[in-house]
Design goal:
mainly beta, Alpha-Beta Plaits, 2 domains, six-stranded mixed sheet, 3 helices, 13% helix, elongated
Length: 230
């Protein structure tokens, strides 16, 4: 079973059946579904169900490391707002981009200069100086001043006042469980995910903004049904 992690919350689609993953002699064309900005709205939700009459196993782990395992034919990932102590979050933005591809190219250029970075999507795609490396106002300002001295004019500091954060909730059989990590397994090797009228197979994880983003792990996608109706 493959695990895809992006920031905090991870929902991994796994397989119960044993055996090694099949090998392929040539490249495989994959259809990948992405739900961006999931969690921007408190009403956002994804419904995960088994195919046919298949039961799913949901294992949810909260931020205290407490684990609960439940079974059901369907579960929902919903968003709840959790209050946090008010604080000013500051980041050093190295670049703003319209697409992930241009942001990734920019990130690689900064990395080639020895700067640790992360690609985020708080609104537009952005490249940030990695927060757990440049983790103090003094260090961020030192880096910004050094970049400006080298002639870079685009990097800038950005501050956001935080007083709440989105909390993913797993809803199964009418019961809600806060979760920073969720694993979903199916015995029939297929899981149906519904967001509005779109159906596809995927995994879900928080991005660095820190709202969640839904993504598909490459290593498991070819064992799942291709996207339909997306």
């Amino acid at each position: 079973m493959a695990v895809q992690r992006v920031g905090g919350l991870v929902i991994t689609l796994g397989l119960v059946a044993g055996g090694a993953l099949p090998s392929f002699a040539k490249d495989v064309l994959l259809q990948v579904g992405v739900v961006q900005r999931f969690g921007d709205e408190d009403r956002d939700q994804l419904t995960i169900s088994g195919v046919g009459n298949d039961d799913l196993t949901f294992t949810a782990v909260n931020n205290q490391g407490e684990k609960v395992t439940l079974q059901g034919k369907q579960g929902t990932i919903a968003i709840s707002r959790r209050a946090v102590p008010r604080k000013l979050a500051e980041v050093l933005v190295l670049g703003d981009h319209a697409t992930f591809e241009t942001a990734e190219d920019d990130a690689l250029r900064w990395q080639a200069q020895g700067i640790a970075v992360e690609v985020t999507q708080p609104g537009r795609w952005q490249v940030w100086a990695k927060r757990d490396v440049y983790d103090s106002p003094l260090v961020r300002r030192w880096l910004l001043a050094d970049l400006q001295k080298q002639g870079y004019q685009l990097p800038y500091l950005e501050s956001v006042l935080l007083d709440s954060k989105p909390q993913a909730m797993v809803v199964i059989n009418g019961q809600s469980y806060p979760a920073d990590r969720v694993t979903v397994t199916a015995t029939k090797n297929q899981i149906q995910v519904t967001e509005g009228e779109k159906n596809f197979s995927m995994a879900v994880g928080y991005n660095s903004s820190p709202t969640p983003t839904a993504i598909t792990p490459w290593s498991t996608m070819y064992r799942w049904k291709p996207i339909s109706g997306a």
